[in-house]
Design brief:
Radius of gyration: 34 Å
Helix content: 40-55%
Number of helices: 26
CATH class of the largest domain: Alpha Beta
Number of strands: 34
CATH architecture of the largest domain: 2-Layer Sandwich
Number of domains: 5
Strand content: 15-25%
Length: 929
């Protein structure tokens, strides 16, 4: 999201930069200005140029060199340049003046405009100075006082020089950094617009081919209509952004970066609708982006297949959601439009006459709030029902508060009721999202276009209630206690990084550096922990592998002259720049003290079991890329002694043939007993050699690369432990494949002893089954088919008998129906129904028997009451709504329900209240007359 994010630890002094002077050109993505995308300058995805100083040059040099680059290298005319500085930064003012900048062209702004950071709640920050370019008097608002800071578009910020000199604390304090730093950012797209004499980034050679493709797809000419032009720009920008996000391994999901991708893609699809693009089109746009940018960013060419398939699948899915959501939203809006004027009269009656809350339904009916547009589309009717329920709930709550003399609360309810016609509630937005998958951002955008506000805070409250999980500080379990890594930040004694020697040996003599009794970081340094206590131990060097990259931590023992502890897990954590490995466990003999010379002994058998699986995981990824294509990218893993789990990007389930082929390739490489070698190299060299990197992982300048085979068949950046040759894996078996989200698959597999045990268990089960069936193992499949056929025949007989019983019972129940005007009503408990499906089927039989009718049936399944309400079309026309009826009925035994006008279904908790609920149903049905 910002050019300096990867340099943050350098600025705070937690890590050492490879050089005190750095420069970068990098892809950036941020959604803070997403609502502004479509104007001349705002983007979600852009290329950021930057130069950085880590405790080296500072403000004077940064300003002088920026001036030199802009005026001498780019040759931008001074009369077009303006400069802004932080309010009290006289130093920056004087430096610009020394370079010849007129004082009237140096503007002072406050924190919002000219104080940058931090990137998050805490971290490096400081005042900044921005360079702005004047696009000319023909652009913008034309006011005499127009200048940098005006939103009209005439002035464009081209370079931001941040003087990073403070470290913001969690309490808001800003303390000076050990050394001041420089962090600058120049947007390539904006500078291209300036250099090419364009007033918009979309008119530069970076965007013209993409804009042309959008125009072709939409059949719309750019420059004819500003509304159309903005939609074209939004689609082009978002199309470029999603291409790069997917190319970098992001897949659509409902959380984290996956949701950000999904949000941008869906926004592009929505603006496509405004251009008349009702069928999937973003794949064609992604093709144009790849063609335009593939030479500078070859990864999008390599990921072409994944990008196109992900975009097409996600867009097709969303088109269904969009069609449905737009209909529901139309219903919510149209219902308000039809009843907006009646709200005033309804409010007057409610406030003056102060009716009982029990009369809320009658009041709504009087003012025409009951019913919906029967000619509307099905999901538009759903939206109208939601709107009707929201106004009914508001009125009921207002009258209830008025009854209870809660005047302040009642007034607030009446105010909400007054605003109802121009406002969508958080509950409605939440239901659109939670039940129908319609994004809240799109709801807000469409509502605003129709003059409605949206309660997004209420939506977030509904989301929070749904989550029902506390947000706690990250904890790391330690035996029976825990290590709170927040606490370590206040401790004075932070050891240096633990040296890992486990690649060379599994037994190593080391020194105890820190003890964590009962898993807690103590206020004062603890020097001894005695027998029976849980603890965490940090050694100077250790052969124990700390949990990382999906690989579980080692177990074993730590032995000293005065005592011994069992190590049940090993984890690692970064604290103030130190990479610490914490050995978790319990003192089982004597005591362990700080400065003890101890022998750290890893469980060798378990380590070897674990080591098989990282190597097997690398072979699996290699095999999958052979079988499925290079779009396969690792997105997560688990490496344990007895199993491995591999998460990767791929659209669609794998066939049995594909899984067997991947398994065959891995076992072939196992039998070839290929050498496995690990070594360190630079990150850039490793990538140049074709090594695979795990997206989302942070890599330093120096990385560990694991290579398999000679010639190399697999090369990956990996910090895990591996076998010396593939033959040590023994056997590899895939035992499961599943979806873990849109475009995400998971394979579970076994190797070595785990695979052998699995085969043994499977063979044993097969033999037991054969003995049970009294046949030989090869005959099991045919025998199961015979038994299945017999079972299906018996099921069909039972179903026929049940249907006949239900039909017979329906005829009997029909005789109990009570005439109400020209139709019949019925409420009855049905013991014969064995499932909710059977209850619905009995309802269908009853409709045949009764003709014009409305009824509610109840039954008890699994000790809980269930209800079905039905009505014929002519009764619905009189105001009957099965979904609303069943919702009220199911509330009696503590439940809920819903449905359409003709069919409603619900359930409760207390079966003893079934009869009471049906009595209410009878009362509600009689009111239809």
């Amino acid at each position: 999201t910002a050019g300096m994010v990867q340099f943050k630890s350098y600025f705070t002094g937690e890590a050492t930069a490879p050089s005190p002077r750095l420069a970068s050109c990098q892809k950036c993505f941020r959604t803070t200005d997403i609502d502004s995308v479509g104007d001349s300058k705002h983007l979600t995805f852009f290329e950021m140029l930057g130069n950085f100083s880590v405790g080296d040059y500072f403000k004077r040099e940064a300003i002088e060199w920026a001036w030199e680059f802009v005026t001498q290298r780019l040759k931008l005319p001074l009369e077009r340049l303006w400069f802004s500085i932080f309010l009290d930064d006289d130093e920056a003012f004087n430096y610009w003046r020394e370079l010849g900048v007129p004082a009237e062209r140096i503007l002072r702004f406050g924190e919002e405009e000219n104080f940058w950071g931090p990137a998050g709640e805490t971290g490096p920050c400081g005042p900044c100075s921005e360079i702005h370019y004047d696009l000319g008097e023909g652009i913008g608002c034309g006011r005499p006082d127009c200048g940098p800071g005006c939103e009209c578009g005439r002035f464009i910020e081209i370079w931001n020089l941040v003087f990073t000199q403070y470290d913001q604390q969690s309490d808001g304090r800003r303390i000076p950094l050990p050394k001041p730093n420089i962090d600058t950012g120049m947007g390539l797209e904006r500078m291209a617009a300036v250099m090419q004499g364009k007033v918009s980034v979309y008119e530069t050679d970076l965007f013209v081919p993409i804009m042309k493709r959008v125009s072709e797809l939409a059949g719309q000419r750019y420059g004819q209509d500003e509304t159309i032009d903005r939609a074209l720009r939004v689609v082009a920008e978002h199309g470029r952004a999603i291409t790069f996000l997917i190319g970098d391994g992001v897949v659509p999901s409902n959380e984290g970066r996956g949701y950000v991708l999904r949000r941008v893609l869906r926004r592009a699809a929505l603006f496509g609708r405004k251009l008349g693009l009702n069928e999937p089109f973003l794949g064609g746009l992604a093709e144009a982006v790849i063609s335009q940018m593939r030479h500078e960013y070859p990864e999008i060419e390599r990921g072409r297949e994944l990008i196109l398939s992900t975009v097409e699948a996600e867009e097709s899915r969303f088109n269904q959601t969009l069609d449905r959501g737009l209909e529901i939203l139309r219903g919510l809006i149209n219902y308000r439009g039809r009843h907006g004027e009646a709200i005033t009269e309804l409010l007057s009656l409610a406030k003056v006459r102060k009716p009982s809350s029990e009369n809320a339904s009658a009041i709504l009916e009087k003012y025409g709030f009951v019913g919906y547009d029967t000619e509307a589309e099905p999901f538009e009717q759903v939206g109208e029902q939601m709107a009707a329920e929201s106004v009914a709930d508001l009125l009921y709550q207002a009258l209830k508060s008025q009854e209870e003399d809660a005047f302040i609360e009642a007034e607030a309810r009446f105010l909400s009721l007054q605003e109802w016609s121009n406002h969508l509630s958080g509950q409605e937005v939440f239901e659109l999202y939670d039940t129908y998958g319609f994004p809240p951002e799109l709801t807000a955008e469409i509502a605003a276009e129709n003059g409605l506000s949206v309660d997004l805070e209420g939506f977030e409250e509904e989301m929070e209630r749904q989550r029902e999980r506390a947000r706690a500080a990250q904890k790391i379990a330690v035996g029976g206690g825990r290590v709170d890594m927040e606490g370590v930040l206040s401790i004075k004694h932070i050891p240096k990084s633990t040296d890992f020697v486990g690649d060379e040996t599994l037994k190593h003599q080391s020194t105890v550096v820190v003890l964590l009794p009962d898993g807690e970081w103590p206020e004062d340094r603890v020097v001894t922990v005695s027998q029976g206590q849980h603890l965490g131990v940090i050694l100077r060097e250790t052969p124990f592998y700390g949990e990382m990259g999906g690989q579980v931590g080692d177990t074993g023992e730590i032995r000293g002259e005065k005592g011994r502890m069992t190590v049940t897990n090993t984890v690692r954590h970064t604290v103030s720049g130190s990479e610490l490995i914490v050995h978790q466990g319990k003192v089982v003999e004597g005591q362990i003290s700080v400065d003890d010379i101890v022998e750290a002994v890893v469980d060798e058998k378990r380590r070897l079991d674990i080591a098989r699986n990282p190597t097997a995981t690398h072979l699996l990824q290699m095999a999958l890329r052979q079988v499925l294509g290079s779009q396969v990218q690792q997105s997560g893993s688990l490496v344990a002694p007895d199993r491995l789990r591999f998460d990767f990007t791929y659209l669609g389930a794998l066939t049995m043939e594909q899984l067997l082929e991947a398994q065959r390739i891995v076992n072939e490489k196992v039998r070839q007993n290929l050498p496995v070698k690990a070594g360190t190299t630079s990150y850039s060299e490793a990538i140049a050699q074709g090594a695979l990197a795990f997206f989302g992982e942070k890599y330093g300048e120096e990385v560990r690369m694991v290579e398999i085979g000679e010639p190399i068949i697999s090369a990956e950046l990996c910090g895990g432990t591996h076998v010396g040759s593939t033959g040590e894996i023994g056997l590899f078996i895939i035992v499961g494949e599943s979806s873990i989200g849109a475009g995400m698959r998971r394979i579970e597999a076994l190797s070595g002893r785990g695979a052998e045990e699995f085969v043994h268990k499977q063979l044993s089960l097969l033999e037991e089954a054969a003995q049970e069936l009294r046949i030989s193992a090869p005959e099991i499949k045919s025998r199961i088919s015979e038994l299945q056929a017999e079972l299906d025949a018996e099921r069909r007989k039972a179903l026929a008998l049940e249907r006949e019983s239900l039909r017979k019972r329906a005829k009997e129940l029909a005789k109990k129906a009570v005439p109400v005007g020209d139709f019949k009503i019925l409420t009855e408990s049905v013991e014969e129904a064995l499932s909710i499906e059977a209850l619905r089927e009995m309802g269908d039989f009853l409709k045949e028997e009764l003709g014009k009718s409305a009824f509610v049936l109840g039954a008890v399944f699994n000790d809980r009451p269930s209800f079905v309400a039905m009505g014929t079309a002519d009764v619905v026309a009189r105001g009957f709504h099965a979904g609303r009826i069943v919702k009220q009925v199911a509330a009696v035994p503590g439940g809920g329900g819903g449905g359409t006008a003709e069919l409603g279904q619900g359930g409760g908790k207390d079966k003893e209240k079934l009869s009471e609920a049906l009595d209410l149903a009878q009362e509600l049905l009689r009111k239809l007359s």
